Structures are given as structure tokens and as C-alpha cells.
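Exercise 7b. C-alpha cells:
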């Protein structure tokens, strides 16, 4: 097969993927399965060989990320039910002394999305953003886009969220280094994008907060104290304990990464640090830490369990109630991202087996095209047509993987370029777009004007920061 035929085949596959998703409203799992089968047969495999490869790559993808996604979902349930999300937001209110309060839910979303799905972070932060907007009389045009930017940056660039984690594994990148540089890039991008766009958004149309979240609240008096601005919730954990389930897993994974670089494989230090830095173990530590937050909060977790119609056994302990409730809810939330990511891995596996990708990589090199732009552009284009950051990132990674040597890119840099590209063209064919507009009281036009543009700029700024880091040889 020639490179031209392969490219034409990819165009057809993307067109079919878009048509089935947008026009036929097919579920992404079935769409990805059909496209994977189509690509396998079109690339020369028999039907039996194609089915075997789909099973193989689906399973290998889930084996790398499955347990971590489930543990991340459990942590999300605990953060929500114990009041840790409220405490994190109040921390940022205090940090900024009650000013620039749009940064409180935005940075809360940034932190929570480190270990929690982006969609869940939207649900956790939308009521907080609405209440703060009402209390401080802040236009949601200033509040909501930065909440979305914060959660999308960390969702797209920092493992263990599913898409970027799967990309890092597929490209053979050191996950600890991806976390460290992804965090740096995300934070710098958030700050720069905020500085560049805040004066513009301040002149935007007025959008009130979602009234469903502000019932019973009133605007704070002029010159209100910090205490009057805090989100009120009874019996919530301390700031330190609230952050721990989200931050400690990332620290442990990063420690494991440094062990790979510093110590000789097989040494005691390497074995110990690599073990505690294993991503599955690190997320399990996060589960333990969030479970500890239920201490002295039995009534709180009992109320939340009953609210979610969880049957509570007689004389059950707070830990038993909470963990069983969280696991059941987490599995319901995690199953769809798991299966979609697995199917994306199957399609990616079939694509990266094609030897013609090496020829395409050589052709790009001969054209003197900026090599770092390739993974970024591929992810951005695929995001525009597929509407899924995970699918776009994994498909782009599958195409880039065989070219890495020819492109001269390190796996870490390529992974982050894909992640930055997957943020661009975030629009109406993305489920998160509709969640954001609904939860934050925006219509479709307003969503495109404020969410799509800010996200796109954030992805471009993140890519620019990555280019500087790569040029300096730091990653």
C-alpha cells in the first residue's frame, strides 16, 4: 500500500467515524469497533485476523489503564461526598483574599481533574461556580470559561486521566515525566491564557448563574468578609486532607519516574521506589486517603448513600457504607470511558501496524516540516472531526508512534504535543461541550464563543510552552 492510498483510507475512516457519530448518533463504542474492523480489512488482514487484533489491542489497552481509571472514579466519589471539593474551593477563595473569585472554582477544577474525569469535575465544580458568581455578582462569562480551561488542561495533559495515560503508554513515554512536564505546561498555559483573555471577557455579555444551583443563596453584601464568601458545608475535612487523595498519587508516580532515571535497575532503591511509583499502587493509595476522610462523618456519608439510593446494611460502619457506595457509583461512571478507551486502543493498534506510516514519516522529514507540529496538528484535526479528546489523542498517537524515530521526537514530548492538540477545536460534537453549556447556563452560541475559543487558545499556548521546553532539551 502506498502512502497516498493510506492517507485516503484514513480520510474515509475519519469521515465514516464522523458520520456515524454525528448523523447516525451511534455510540462511540460501536463506531470505533466498526471503524477498527474496516481499517483492519482495508489494510490487508482477513476478517479473522482483524477480530483477533481488535481483541488483542482492546485487552492490552485496558490492562494498562483499567484499574487506575476505576480507582480515579472512586476518589472522585469520595471527594464529592466528604466535602473535600468544597474545602478545596474555599482554600482558593482564601488564597486570593476574596478577589478574582473566578479563579477559585477554576483552580479547584484544575486540581480535581488531576485524578478525576473531566466530566465529573464539571459536575463537582458547577454548583460552586454558580454560588460564587451569585454571592460576588460575577458574570458567568468570566467564571465558566476558566473552569472549563482548568479541567481541560489537566484532563488533556496530565495522567492518570484516561486519554493522556493511554497515549503515554502507547508511545512508551515515562509517565512520571509526562505528569511533571504536563503539570508545568498546564499551569503556565492557564496563567497566560487567563492574563490574555480576562480583559476581553470582562466586556462580554452578561450570563447569570444556573438558578438550579443558587436557590436559597443571596448576593453577599458589599465588602463582605472572607467568612461570608466561603461555600458553607457542615463537617468537611481540613484543607491538607482534602488535597491529599488527589496530589499524593501524582507525587508517588513522579518518584517512580525519578527512580528509573537515577538508580540502576535491580537495585534495592530502584525496586522500592519503582514499586511505590507504580500507577496502580499510587491510585490505590489515593483511594485509601479518601477513605480516611469518612472518619467522624458517618451521618454525612449515610445521607449521601441514601441520596444515591444505596441500600445501607444495619449497623454498617461509615467506612463500609462509603466504600461500597463509592465503588458501585464509580463502576457505573468508569465503564463507558474504559470501553471507549479500549476500543480506541484497538483502532490505534491496527493503524500503527501499517509499515506505510514509516514512509509517511520519511516524506515529512524530507519536506523539512516542523516535526513537533505533526502530533499536535494530527490530534487537533482529529478532535475537530471526532469530538472526543480521548479518541483524537489515541488515534493521533497511533499514527505518530511508528514515526517517532524518523521525527526525532522523544516519547514524552510527542505525548504532550498530542495532549495539547486534543484541546483545540473543542466544540458541539463533544459531549463535554453540552455538559458545560447546560451546567453553566450557556446556550450553544455562547458555548462556541467562550468555551471553544478559550480552550483552543489554551491548547495553542500549551503547545508553545512545550516547544520552548523541547528546544531547551529539558524533556
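Sequence design result:
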Amino acid at each position: 500500500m502506498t502512502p497516498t492510498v493510506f492517507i485516503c483510507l484514513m480520510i474515509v475512516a475519519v469521515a465514516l467515524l464522523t458520520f456515524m457519530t454525528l448523523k447516525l448518533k451511534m455510540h462511540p463504542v460501536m463506531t470505533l469497533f466498526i471503524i477498527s474492523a474496516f481499517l483492519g480489512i482495508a489494510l490487508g488482514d482477513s476478517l479473522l485476523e482483524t477480530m483477533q487484533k481488535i481483541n488483542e489491542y482492546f485487552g492490552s489497552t485496558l490492562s494498562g489503564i483499567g484499574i487506575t481509571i476505576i480507582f480515579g472514579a472512586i476518589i472522585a466519589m469520595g471527594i464529592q461526598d466528604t466535602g473535600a471539593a468544597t474545602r478545596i474551593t474555599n482554600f482558593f477563595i482564601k488564597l486570593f483574599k476574596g478577589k478574582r473569585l473566578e479563579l477559585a472554582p477554576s483552580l479547584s477544577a484544575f486540581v480535581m481533574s488531576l485524578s478525576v474525569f473531566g466530566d465529573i469535575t464539571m459536575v463537582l465544580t458547577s454548583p460552586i461556580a454558580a454560588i460564587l458568581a451569585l454571592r460576588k455578582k460575577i458574570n458567568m462569562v468570566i467564571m465558566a470559561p476558566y473552569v472549563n480551561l482548568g479541567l481541560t488542561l489537566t484532563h488533556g495533559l496530565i495522567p492518570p486521566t484516561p486519554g493522556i495515560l493511554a497515549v503515554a503508554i502507547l508511545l512508551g513515554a515515562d509517565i512520571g515525566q509526562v505528569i511533571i512536564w504536563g503539570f508545568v505546561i498546564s499551569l503556565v498555559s492557564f496563567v497566560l491564557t487567563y492574563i490574555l483573555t480576562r480583559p476581553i471577557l470582562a466586556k462580554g455579555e452578561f450570563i447569570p448563574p444556573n438558578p438550579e444551583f443558587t436557590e436559597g443563596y443571596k448576593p453577599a453584601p458589599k465588602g463582605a468578609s472572607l467568612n461570608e464568601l466561603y461555600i458553607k458545608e457542615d463537617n468537611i475535612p481540613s484543607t491538607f486532607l482534602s488535597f491529599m487523595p488527589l496530589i499524593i498519587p501524582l507525587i508517588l508516580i513522579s518518584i517512580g519516574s525519578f527512580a528509573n532515571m537515577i538508580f540502576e535497575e535491580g537495585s534495592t532503591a530502584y525496586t522500592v521506589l519503582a514499586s511505590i511509583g507504580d500507577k496502580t499502587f499510587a491510585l490505590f493509595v489515593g483511594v485509601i486517603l479518601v477513605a480516611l476522610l469518612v472518619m467522624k462523618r458517618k451521618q454525612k456519608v449515610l445521607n449521601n448513600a441514601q441520596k444515591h439510593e444505596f441500600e445501607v446494611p444495619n449497623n454498617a460502619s461509615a467506612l463500609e457504607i462509603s466504600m461500597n457506595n463509592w465503588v458501585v457509583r464509580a463502576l457505573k461512571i468508569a465503564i463507558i470511558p474504559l470501553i471507549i478507551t479500549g476500543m480506541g486502543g484497538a483502532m490505534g493498534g491496527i493503524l500503527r501496524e501499517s509499515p506505510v506510516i514509516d514512509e509517511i514519516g520519511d516524506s515529512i522529514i524530507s519536506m523539512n516540516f516542523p516535526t513537533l507540529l505533526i502530533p499536535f496538528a494530527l490530534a487537533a484535526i482529529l478532535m475537530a472531526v471526532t469530538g472526543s479528546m480521548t479518541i483524537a489523542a489515541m488515534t493521533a498517537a497511533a499514527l505518530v508512534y511508528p514515526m517517532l524515530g524518523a521525527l526525532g521526537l522523544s516519547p514524552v514530548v510527542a505525548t504532550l504535543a498530542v495532549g495539547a492538540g486534543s484541546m483545540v477545536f473543542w466544540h458541539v460534537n463533544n459531549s463535554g461541550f453540552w455538559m458545560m453549556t447546560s451546567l453553566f447556563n450557556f446556550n450553544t452560541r455562547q458555548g462556541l464563543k467562550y468555551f471553544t475559543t478559550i480552550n483552543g487558545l489554551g491548547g495553542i499556548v500549551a503547545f508553545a510552552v512545550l516547544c520552548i521546553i523541547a528546544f531547551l532539551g529539558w524533556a
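Instructor comment: The mean pLDDT is 88. Residues 17 and 23 are 10 Å apart (CA to CA).
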